[in-house]
Automatic annotation (TrEMBL):
One GO cellular component term noted in the UniProt record for this chain: membrane
SLC26A/SulP transporter domain mapped to chain residues: 7-373
Membrane spanning residue stretches: 77-96, 108-132, 191-210, 230-254, 274-297, 317-346, 367-395
Protein name: Sulfate transporter
Superkingdom assignment: Bacteria
UniProt feature, compositional bias: Basic and acidic residues: 480-489
InterPro entries, per database record: SLC26A/SulP_dom, SLC26A/SulP_fam
Source species of the chain: Streptomyces griseoflavus Tu4000
Membrane topology according to the record: Multi-pass membrane protein
Keywords: Membrane, Transmembrane, Transmembrane helix
Subcellular location: Membrane
GO biological process: transmembrane transport
Amino acid sequence: MSRFPHLRQDFAASLVVFLVALPLCVGVAVASGVPAELGLITGIVGGLVPGLLPGSSLQVSGPAAGLTVLVFEAVDAYGLPALGVIVLAAGLLQLAMGALRLGRWFRAISLSVVEGMLAGIGLVLIAGQLYAAAGLTAPASGTDKILGLPGAVADALGSNEALASLAVGAGTVAVMVLWRRMPGPAGAVPGALAAVLLATAVTLAFGAPVATVEVQGLLDAVQPPGADAFGGLGIGVLGTIVAFTLIASAESLFSAAAVDRLHDGPHTRYDKELMAQGAGNTVCGILGALPLTAVIVRSSANVRAGARTKASRVLHGVWLLLFAALLPSALALIPLPALAGILVHAGWKLIPFRAVATLWRGQRGEALILVATAVSIVVVNMFEGVLIGLALAVVKTAWEASQAKLEVIDKGAGPVQVYLTGNATFLRLPRILDTLESLPRDRPVELDLTGLHHVDHACLTALRNWSERHSAPGTAPVKLTERPAEEKGLPVTAA
């Protein structure tokens, strides 16, 4: 025991994480349109591979609800055999990024973009799983999923089977919401597990006409990508690979930052953690399984359960492996609407309602970026939606950084004095030129740029051109004063 002083705490925590992870692994796989066993395989790899590697000590990896929509779109577009190739490529890319020490740069991504990404995923996930809860087939696009909900409700009301399925899904959500208030030992059981067990028991007891998980066996589910899978993919898959890589990496590293705030143990080494995630995804790709990422639900459960070292997350992978090997037939008893209910609940938790309200009161620009990112993901797709959010964040930052103040002093006699201070960029150029062009052309003008901290090439060129052309014939030319080149990197010009 001296070599493992915290084994008791880690053993107990690993059982809690296993019970939390089990229904989520299966639910994410089914929602992604792949065999349920692939979710368990990713959960096993998430425990055994990143769990044994350096990076983060207490965060737990596995299949994540945040990647469900992207995986479903990829499988729908390229087929299940191609999933392994995509995940393998994403894992290798993560390894390269970690080796190049790019992990820390993910902390520079705008939090509003990340929260908007999760909100958009949550909206699409909820909409899609509402169809699954009723036993209906969901439309392909996020917009069609949402717009088609009224018609789906009408279809469900006309079918006893759909109503029974919806009742199981709604009951699952209700149990998950209310379970945390359970007193005594019952409250220690993870809500998702309790909800699935109760839903399974009710459907078996009453013979409810609901669909259950299809089981094909753990070994049969493992489908390593063959030569055909590699050769059948075109250049268009590169965008999907990049999307997998960026979203999985961002979610993992943001989760690591959140988990670090929950405990006082060793903090995450971001580049190492990115490589650990990459190694896990490389193995998942070789096995043809789902992509993995660090998951805040499992990670926070691990910390709250008293885990002290990475042994807890490794052991949770061992328990998943034992379950998948010894009790695979138990999966066939789980009703699909119960898993849909779990994913609806998970999708709801991805939407940062409080963050939107807080940002709207204090930083409306950030709130608009969050909402725009979420809406773009719903309307367009995951990858392009995130790019739109990042572009908006860059534009907002550039606009705020470009704070230029233009002061005009006209004493009625002598030259008109103009002082430009702050940061002059092309974003502020129209307003600056409008003011300068309104100055009288028949009087001397002195334009002083020495108060600028920064001026970009476009703005400086425009100011020089204006100074050369502004004065009317017979009037002294504009006197332009700039900082010397050695100060702030500004070019030197003659007066």
